[in-house]
Amino acid sequence: MSDVIMRVLRLVALLAGVTLLVACESVEERVQAHYDSGIALVQEGDFTKASLEFRNALKLNPDHVASHFEMAKIQEREGNIRAVIGHLTKVTDLDPQHVEAQVKYAQVMLVAGQLDTARIHAEAAYALEPNNPEVLAVKASVSYRLGNTETAMTDVRRALEVEPFHPSAGVILITDLYQKGEREQAIETAEAFLKAHERNLALNLLKLQLLENAGRKEDVRVHLEKLVGLFPQAREFRLALARFYDSEKQTDKALEQFRAIAAADTSNVPAALDVVRYIVRASGVPAARDELQRMASSAPEPFPFQSALATIDYQNGRRNDAVALLNSIIAANRTPDSVSGAQVQLAQFLMGERKFDEARPVVDAVLAADPGNGGALALRASMRIEARDPAAALEDLRAALSDSPNDVNLLLLSAQAQQLSGNPTLAGENFASAVVASDYDPQITIRYVRFLAQNSRADTIPTVLSEAVRRRPDSKELYTALAQARLQVGDWAGAEAAGEALRKLDATDDVADRIRAASLSGQGRLDDSLQVLEQLSADPERRQSSMTALVRTYLQTGKRPLAEKFLDDVLAENPKNVQALILKAALAEEIGNFEAASAGYDAVVAAEPTLPLVYELKSAYLGRRGDRDGAVAVLREGIGQVADPAPLQLQLAGRFEQLGRIDEAIAEYEALFARNPTSLIYSNNLVSLLSDHKSNDAAALARAVEIGGTLRSSNIPQYQDTFGWLMYLTGNHEEALRDLLPAVEALPQNPWVNYHIGMTYAKLNRPEDARRHLEAALSLADGTTFTKAEEVRATLAAIPASAAPVAPAPAPAAAP
User: Are 132 and 97 spatial neighbours (Cβ–Cβ below 8 Å)?
Assistant: First the structure.
């Protein structure tokens, strides 16, 4: 090989090495450039762009510790705790001596309630820097939360020796003073720390809470005004100040704060609409209409304010004005979004009036122009749910959710469609997602709680509600639900803690006292419970809410004369007090004074003839007395008197069923189902009657199959029985057995359930199992409307005799 060629090859190799070296250096430089840019953006307050820079750095070097740590801090700001933990885990794995990451990890775990993990990272930080005040403070926080107060305060004192007014250590010190009852000293200490750290959020919020707990309203106002001055862009402080002014009836000042929030970002339409909502409350609808018209005339895009105006008009009896406004927006054809928005809102109005035939073409027009319009897809899904076509509804909802996965309305509709499809697990997932997406909105959370209760998942309710009150600590509704859930599981201390939280929210409300009384009663401390209830009933304004519990406790403690005297005193003040009349009639019935009881229930109906409950009670009383026709007549009377007859129709259908008047029961359930086709109660009862009493009628069985899918996969024994029997009737015997087994385990004394599983076993050629349950059905049928005795006897006769003795069935449990 010639020298020239050798020199060329060496030059190529040298150039390749240089290029490789340059490339390696270039990657490191690019990582550092992205990181430096991210830090600069953080300092400017542009966290979105900063996040992109740190992500770019991590794409080039997934192990870049500094970028992971900055990403953790940004994700913490956004509340994405899972991402925070992921980045911090990466940092501490790559660099176990990263003290800031260990401290941050401990702090995050403290907030999440993961105290053991928090302790591990706090101790790791302490091993690295035992004299760092931030490390000592987080270690003290963990110890304090674990109940190791002495250890915690030792670390707090050490932190304050290093840095006399360290804010995190100060928070623990102030909290400890408050917990020891040294309330004024706690406030004074907070003020001392704030002189050194005027803008520290934790100290400021702690002082605000202390002032509120002490009832120092004027000081609360001063501190809130100071916080607004210190953090003029912080919406939360202005909102808190606005609520304070509103509670003090200073509506002009409250409105000023709402306007300031809206003025801070003129593109923030929800903030502007908050102004309007407050004007509705403070000054009325006409003033709010004027405000919306002014906003619409001056806004670059008037539609959001025109839409709000149409809503206000529609809700306040000006339907024609609302519809005319929406039609004018559609006709003006200013922008595609305003046209489709007005069409969707018009369709919503029409659907609210159940004018589906008018709404449908409007929705179709929107989707023809924009097949992915989320609002129109949601409306079409609602119509498909109404038409009992959940599969088609779910297609629309999946399309809409792909663009808006956290849309609360879409998630709730999806839950409803999954229920209709017989998929309670998926329905529950949608409900849970809706709760999280709404940030635990009280109404949505309570709706989820009801779903859990209906689907035999009550054990999860306290956990859901505990998280809800953590997120929404000002919700009386959530604390009340939490207290009730804890009472139901016998968590007496937890129930009383929830009650005390309610007392702090509203000292004038008696719910906390009633919760305490229920807790004491649950613990068997009836005399203590009675004392609380008597104190409540001594106040005329609180008497009504505690009346039933007081009478019940009088009876439990053998003090019937006191119960009777109490009711007589109440009725002397108000002869039409319905609750007292009901209790008095019940007391008379209990001791066999049926003349007084009959007169009492008549008085109940006369006192409140538009209340469904009074007819239910009178009908039930007549039923107990054997007056079946009278019981039916009372329910029919009530159906013609009350605004919502559904509860009475449900009672009437059940009574017809008890009397063996099956066709009349079916007719009532059909009427109920037509008005609310998503009700599992109506679906179950109607399918049950059709399949048990009309199985030889092809049309009736087809109707049962049409409706019965909603019951698939239910955890409720009655629904499992209904669906299992429906599967039997359609020839799916193995699937039938899967649902009937848990049903008969839960309802062993029900003749119908034993009949259903016995017939299924017979079809599956399991004669001894069939015999056991069919014989149980016959023995349990006495005194019921069981109509299949002859079929059972015929089936038993066809089952071959057992070749060996069969062990007796376990004794049935108590009747549900």
Answer: no
CA distance 577 to 671: 33
pLDDT one-digit tens code per residue, 368-383: 999 999 999 999 999 9
Cα 418–Cα 422–Cα 423 angle in degrees, nearest 5 = 55
pTM above 0.70, yes or no: no
User: String of b and e for 778-806 (b: at least 16 CB within 10 Å)?
Assistant: bebbeeeebebeeebeebbeebeeeeeee
pLDDT tens digits for 87-99? 999 999 999 999 9
476-488 vs 492-505: helix axis angle to the nearest 10?
Answer: 170
Residue 713, pLDDT score: 65
Q: Nearest Cα to 690, choosing from 716, 676, 711, 675?
A: 711
Closest CA to 136 of 97, 169, 106, 170: 169
| Phi-psi sector, 505: left (phi>0), alpha (psi -120 to 50), beta | alpha
Long-range contacts at 751-756 (CB < 8 A, ≥ 24 apart): 751/776, 751/777, 751/778, 751/780, 751/781, 751/784, 751/786, 752/692, 752/721, 752/777, 752/786, 753/717, 753/721, 754/780, 755/786, 755/788, 755/792, 756/721, 756/724, 756/725, 756/728
Q: Kindly give, in sequence order, each residue whose CB lies less than 8 Å from that of residue 359, ignoring residues fewer than 6 positions away.
A: 347, 350, 351, 379, 383
pLDDT at 660: 87
Beta carbons within 8 Å of 571's beta carbon, 6+ residues apart? 577, 580, 581, 584
